Hints:
- The protein has helices at residues 10-17, 21-26, 36-41, 77-87, 96-126, 133-144, 153-159, 164-184, 192-201, 227-245, 251-258, 280-288, 320-350, and strands at residues 66-70, 73-76, 207-208, 211-220, 269-274, 298-300, 303-313, 316-317, 353-354.
- The chain is an alpha+beta fold.
- The strands form three sheets. The protein has a four-stranded antiparallel beta sheet, with helices on both faces. A three-stranded antiparallel beta sheet has the order 2-1-9.
Amino acid sequence: MQDATVKQGWATIVATMAGVAVLSAVTGCTPKEKPPAAAAATKAKAPAKIMELPVAAEKPMDPATVLVSVGGVALTAGEADGQIARMLGGQASLTPEQQTQLMPRFRQQIADRFVVRTLLGQEAEKRKIEAVESDVTNAIGEIQTTLPAGMTLESALAKDGLSMTDFRSNLVAELRMKKLVDAACPVADPDDAAVEAFYKSDTNRFASPETVQARHILLKVEETASPAEKAARKSDAEALQKQLAENKIDFAKTAMATSDCPSKARGGDLGSFTRGQMVKPFEDAAFSQAPDVIGPVVETPFGFHIIKVVKHSPAAVTPLSEVRAKIRLYLKSQGQKDKFETFIEGLRKSADVKGPLAVSPQRAGPDAQP
């Protein structure tokens, strides 16, 4: 069977630009360079790594094995595994053993998506829903606006091993499904009362915390440093601070030349951070220091810091006027999602869906229907 999915990355672009957000939802130092002190400030909860999930090892499967079929249209293990291989193309962090362990879960996700797409494709065919050339042209135009400067759609597809012919074919299928969903799951725009009620139900979701954007210079002190060595580093930091405070030297250039923090590459720029992200002495200084002022030398377990606050933004709640359109769009998408799920269940019950992966564990239950 011909692979009906766009390669990883482009499937998302096509679905998004074609407006099939509902389909995607149902089927389918820090990065801002904290100083070394920040790493010790808090131990953030790391998300569970995919390779640490408790999954039983997968047994080899005959590529011809049918995983699921919908009205006689089948998905084989070989086809699913081919899609998974492309999906994992850039996942260098997964070892072959880990990929093998995760194959059952990946296959189920591919099978679930296959069922939904096939049901929608068959229903669109039954209703004689078509995507005209102008639909395709407009969608491609929107996709091209998302590409990096200097990159064409053709070169991007070639890099991913996908021809323009296959891409257009996949795009037509996505657009037909979008038209079907729009026709079968109509949802009116939420009125102002609904939008306001949602906003007032939890204003915390529209709150932004107090933040500081700052640059810093770190003169690192090793744990094994003697009192004399530590005193010398502090003296160096105070001398630098004095020159910076008197505007005799440029902060960014000095950071690049002298700082022991990786942020030196950006002139000491740490970006914006909230309370709790930096070690306490550093945080206290940054959040109490006025913008554009070179503060006094700050000592932390990692050494001596010179801080320059670029911007201090107080905590605030975004007013309803600024988020009204986003709330309206969100409420409408949620309403369409609910209708979509009901619509798909109706198609599933009236179709011949069978195979070992016909029902995912999420749908399994006493009343689950294959």
